[in-house]
Amino acid sequence: MAITDDLRKTLSDPTPLYFAAGTADLALQQAKKVPALVEQLRAEAPARIEKVRATDPKAVQEKAAARAKEAQETLQSKVTELIGGFDVDLKKLGEQAQDLALRGVGVAAEYAVRARETYEKVAEHGEQAVKTWRGEAAEDIEELAIAVEGKAEPVEVKDESGRPKVATPEAAAEKKAAARKAPAARKPTPAKKPTPPAK
C-alpha cells in the first residue's frame, strides 16, 4: 500500500506541472528579448568586422604567445607549490582527505538545497503564470459571451403591487437564473394494471 500511496501522492501533486509552466513562461520572457539582441548585433556587426580586418595578424600572434607563456609560467609555479606543499605524513594526508570529503558532502548538500529552492521558486512562478493564463481565458470567454448574447438591456418588471419598475440587467439575470433552478412539475405516472394470472 505504501507504493500506491506514494504513486497517488506523486501523481496528484501539481508542483511539477507548475514548474513546467514556470519554465515555459520564463523561456517566453527570454525569447521576447531576442529580437532586440539581434538588432543590437546587426547594428554592431559592421564595426566589429572592420576592426577584425584592420588588426595585424602578427600582433595577435604575439599577444597570444605572450599570454600562453604567462599561463605556462603560472601553471608551473602552482604545480611546484602543490608538490612542495604535500605533507609526507600519512596521518595528515588521511585527515586532509577526510576533511575534503566532508566539505564535498557539505557543498553537495548546499547545492541540493539551492536546487530545491530554485525549483520551488520556478514552480511558484508557474502557478502565478497559470493563474494569469486562466484569468485571461476567463476574460476572453466573458467577452465572447457578451458578443454572442448581446448587451443586456433594462427589463420592465412589475413589483408586488403591480406597478411597473425598471430593473437592472443584473436583477433580470438573477430572475432568469431563479426560474431555471425551479424544479419542473412532475407528471403523475398512471398506475399499472395488474396482469392476470396465466392459465
Give the topology:
Blueprint: H1 2-12, H2 15-54, H3 57-85, H4 90-149, E1 155-158, E2 164-167, H5 169-181
Antiparallel strand pairs: 1-2
Helix pairs in contact: 2-4
Q: Tell me about the largest β-sheet.
A: 2 strands, antiparallel
Write down the oligomeric state: single chain
Our Rg estimate from Cα atoms comes to: 38 Å
Structure class: mainly alpha
SS summary, helix count: 5
What's the order of the H and E elements? HHHHEEH
Question: Low-confidence segments, ≥5 residues, pLDDT <50?
Answer: 182-186
Question: Could you report the average pLDDT, rounded to the nearest whole number?
Answer: 75
What's the N-to-C terminus distance?
60 Å
Helix content: over 70%
For the secondary structure, the number of strands is 2
Tag the structure with descriptive keywords:
mainly alpha; 5 helices; two-stranded antiparallel ribbon; 199 residues
Short description:
The chain has 199 residues and is mainly α. It has helices at 2-12, 15-54, 57-85, 90-149, 169-181; strands at residues 155-158, 164-167.
What does this structure look like?
This protein has helices at 2-12, 15-54, 57-85, 90-149, 169-181, and strands spanning 155-158, 164-167. It is mostly helical and 199 residues long. Helix 2 packs across helix 4. The protein has a domain at 14-54 and 87-149. The protein is 77% helix and 4% strand.
